[in-house]
Amino acid sequence: MIESLRERLNERPEGLSKAKENGAKVVGYFCPYIPVEMIHAAGLIPIRLMFGGEGEAAEAGEQYLGPGSCPYARACLGYRALGENPYYSSIDALCVASTCDSMKRVQDYWQYYFKVPVFSIGIPRTYDRFRMRPHALVYLEKEFELLRDRLESWSGTRITEKRLKASIRLYNSIRLRMREIYEPSADGSPKIGWSDAFEISEMGFLLPPSEFLAEIQRIHERLHSTGTAKEKAERGARPADGNKPRLMIYGSNVCLGDRKVIDIIERAGGNIVADAVCTGSKFWRKDVSTGGNPVKALAERYISNINCPFMMDMGRRISYVAKVARENRVDGLIYYNLRYCESYRGELRLFEEALKKEMKIPLLLIETEYSPSDVGTITTKVEAFLEMIRGV
Amino acid sequence: MTFEISELVARFAGVDIGSTTAKAVVMDEEGSIKCCILPIGARSVEAGEKALKAALDDPNNNTNDVRYVVATGYGRVLAPFANETVTEITCHALGAWHVMPATRTVVDLGGQDAKAISLDQNGKVIDFVINDKCAAGTGRFLEFAAKLVLDVPLEEMGALSLTATAPVKISSTCTVFAQTEIVSLLAYGAKKEDILAGLHRGIAKRVGALAKHVGVKPIVLMTGGVSKNIGVRKALEEELGIKVVVPESMDPQLIGALGASLIARNHALRERPSVG
């Protein structure tokens, strides 16, 4: 089902270097707050730098950040320092959202040591649970305008309203297709395994958007063609998953290459059906409005749809997680925390209590880094959690 | 499935292969129990098998009557003699519930990990926490401090610590750092019992935090090798402000294996519903 996409991804580094030879410029970003539409509208190539799971990359980052810092942030520096990952090496400029402290340091070091221009945007905090603070929106819109101006002068391409709207429509089409692929069929059965949907969306952060859209159109067509049970099973919706505990994964980045915890869960007999992590469904869950001022539309979309613990009010985020969990009939929540990420870890206790009250489902904290040393302990925790849910 | 009922009483076994010891509990259909605890050495699975054989206690080495074996503990995944593996969390909850049905909180302090489990009136796990990868403040750490640094036999350290008059404060539960701390305390003339009492308090704080995470509901049952240390138990009582009991009818190190044997019995009988 997704082999063709994987092939595309294998060819991507070569395509990227060819494009660069022809004068194209690559803009890297880390966070789902970055309006990728704007980078695209400037004729630049957006690449989301979200690799992880490799101890070497995190270790290489320790020459800049201490060993007690976020492993993802360390890897963001380490990959570039090692020079072995073609995406990190291809970056000509960075777009960084000023969210957590770790990401601010990543921005500083890229600028200082890797001599890469950084376009930073400020993200306002939006504390109220039920209502967006109107001045927060004004601020984000101004920041997006500034980003537009800077990208324009750096690239030499004017981001006209027409160009920006075209990019918005392109990414909206991708979001729509992703939702259609990911969301369960009318009878509640999944069209595709979560693991595959997640991998597809991760590949989308690296491939050219029009190419990616064509690929997921094909996947979408295959999923919606009627077929036998066997064909359906081959497409990823495994009937055997029926009795397994249904889990949702919430928390920090689950990066491309960071399969440790997901593999442990699946080996132990857990069935991940939904996510709310920085790298997953956050991207495709809501479109950007195509009417009116496109910069304002972008600000409106990005300000209220990224459930980041650093920026978004906790009550609002819990409501979102509970909604997704309910829609997917989740039996338990995996709280995936990259060690030292206090943005997530700090609110665990409140989050757990609220979730239990609202959902009556248990939560399991998995705290880990990019090293295999804790596979045994995590396996025991996950197995015990599954035994607790389904009984022995 | 047809089943010929032999003249032997069927037996079911639970084997808990931990980091320091292997424990086996063999139970028959009436629930009467035989058990064995062995040090683990370098080969954990072999120790598990040895403990199982010793607990079976059959002079002719006839083990045909063993219907079902459940393995638990760190070494469970490698145990070839097991029909099934179940985590030590589930096993401890069930074992604790079996020896004391009113148990609602289990604090287990083993060789290299610590866990707290909250359970319901049926022995089902409601919530649990396991300490993270390092062995700080667990059995290994105490053993190291007692034997190598303080020269006190492990069995005596609990009672000795209760005679402390001015317990010291030991801020580190990391084996390496605590050693440094203990050595310098000794150099300043601190008494052994005061240092031991300090160590026990440090451990009680650590596992007390785990217990508080799952919610401390009475009865709190303490299991695992360290629960035999009266000093740690008393310190934990102080930390939690609640009575902490240890199993009386059974060695507290065997609770995990006991739970495993109960699961073995349930699962074997479930497959054979005509008998019972």
What would a concise description of this structure say?
The complex is a heterodimer of chains A (392) and B (276). Chain A is of the alpha/beta class.
What's the arrangement of secondary structure elements?
The complex is a heterodimer of chains A (392) and B (276).
Chain A: H1 3-21, E1 26-29, H2 36-41, E2 45-48, H3 55-60, H4 71-82, H5 86-90, E3 93-98, H6 101-113, E4 118-122, H7 134-155, H8 161-182, H9 194-204, H10 209-224, H11 229-234, E5 246-251, H12 260-267, E6 271-277, H13 294-305, H14 314-327, E7 332-338, H15 342-345, H16 348-359, E8 363-368, H17 375-390
Parallel strand pairs in A: 1-2, 1-3, 3-4, 5-6, 5-7, 7-8
Chain B: E1 11-17, E2 21-28, E3 33-39, H1 44-56, E4 66-72, E5 84-85, H2 88-99, E6 105-109, E7 114-119, E8 125-130, H3 139-150, H4 154-161, H5 175-187, H6 192-214, E9 220-223, H7 230-240, E10 244-245, H8 255-270
Parallel strand pairs in B: 1-4, 4-5, 6-9, 9-10
Antiparallel strand pairs in B: 1-2, 2-3, 6-7, 7-8
Helix pairs in contact in B: 2-8, 3-5, 4-6, 6-7
